[in-house]
Design brief:
By secondary structure, the chain is an alpha/beta fold. It has ten helices and 18 strands. Helix 3 (about 145-155) packs across helix 4 and helix 3 packs across helix 9.
């Protein structure tokens, strides 16, 4: 098959062996796959994987890896021991985890679990979901990105007198904004240095947007939320120093949900956090229930992800698209269509 292959820190499109489905696995054809910031983190910071002793995410620079974990695909075959409950030709997606005899692997972040930047890849049948929608695959594939912010916003369980402040307006932040809006939470204040991303945040449901280079997000939040509100901050940037700046800039008693997670680590003024009585919750992936909810919202069209989408590329365009995705003013999602 053809695939955009990561090896030795670079990506190129070439021919590799077709994956072979094992027990409980489906062989699927990639129809569309989003480029995620975690793809960039994975390839640009191989040292970050050294701290992961689970084996789920492994970057060996001397081995081919096919990235891509936000996908819509089509079933083309079955491994041994499968129920074959999903007919060949059915569009599907799943939480990007592949069950293998050696353990669980993140799809697109391990040599054993190739992802959607190739023509073919493998899914775990038990967690594969059928696409019940007529929406294009380029829209459906965004559901996994939506699930991360969706889960974070759901887990935050904002109370009546709490109001959110979203720092950063990339894909995960936009999905959190969309979920907060669907929950009736507000006013939603969002901050980003890039005008185009602020505009997208408004399209996804933010009530107020602010350029933190010109105005304090915390003052803008207080003006919008009113004197009685308590702040819940969603940190969705993933750049060193941002979480610490929130710790130093936010009000006392703020709850912070950090989804960014810079791979190179960060330094935090923990004494300041202690003095302010801050509650900081770090990341974690979406639960299966939250993934299903986000997937259903995208497929039904109840959550319009159209404002998040940029251009599409074929496999030969993946290297340039990865570079474009690194830019702060790039679209929240560039979509890879292997068959184009």
């Amino acid at each position: 098959m053809r695939a955009a292959v990561l090896r030795g820190g670079t990506v190129e499109a070439r021919i590799v062996d077709d994956p072979v489905p094992g027990p409980g696995q489906l062989l699927v054809r990639s129809l569309a796959c989003g480029i995620c910031a975690s793809d960039l983190h994975f390839m640009d910071h191989p040292e970050a994987g050294a701290d992961d002793d689970s084996g789920m995410s492994t970057y060996d620079q001397d081995v081919d890896i096919v990235m891509g974990h936000e996908y819509c695909a089509e079933v083309v075959g079955y491994g041994p021991g499968t129920e074959r409950r999903i007919p060949v030709g059915t569009r599907v997606s799943s939480l990007p985890v592949l069950n293998t005899p050696a353990g669980r692997r993140i799809i697109g972040q391990n040599p054993e679990s190739p992802g959607g930047f190739g023509e073919l890849f493998l899914l775990t049948e038990a967690i594969t979901r059928v696409v019940v929608s007529d929406l294009p695959s380029e829209i459906v594939c965004v559901a996994d990105a939506i699930s991360v912010g969706w889960s974070t916003a759901s887990r935050a369980q904002l109370a009546v007198r709490e109001a959110p402040l979203v720092i950063g307006c990339g894909a995960i932040a936009l999905s959190a904004i969309g979920r907060l809006k669907s929950l009736g939470v507000g006013p939603i204040v969002a901050a980003d240095l890039v005008a185009s991303r602020r505009a997208t945040a408004l399209a996804m449901g933010a009530d107020v947007v602010v350029d933190p280079g010109e105005e304090s997000p915390y003052e803008a939040w207080r003006n919008a939320a009113g004197p009685q509100a308590s702040c819940v901050v969603f940190e969705c940037v993933g750049v060193p120093g941002v979480l610490d700046s929130i710790i130093r800039g936010c009000e006392r008693g703020t709850r912070i949900f950090s989804v960014g997670g810079p791979p190179e680590g960060d330094h935090l003024h923990t004494l300041t956090a202690k003095r302010k009585g801050l509650n900081i919750q770090f990341g974690g992936g979406p639960s299966m229930d939250h993934w299903d909810e986000a997937f259903g919202a995208v497929c039904s069209g109840s959550l319009d992800v159209g404002p998040m989408l940029g251009h599409t590329v074929g496999l030969g365009g993946v290297p340039a698209a990865l570079d474009a995705a690194r830019g702060a003013d790039g679209p929240p999602r560039i979509i890879v269509v292997p068959g184009s």
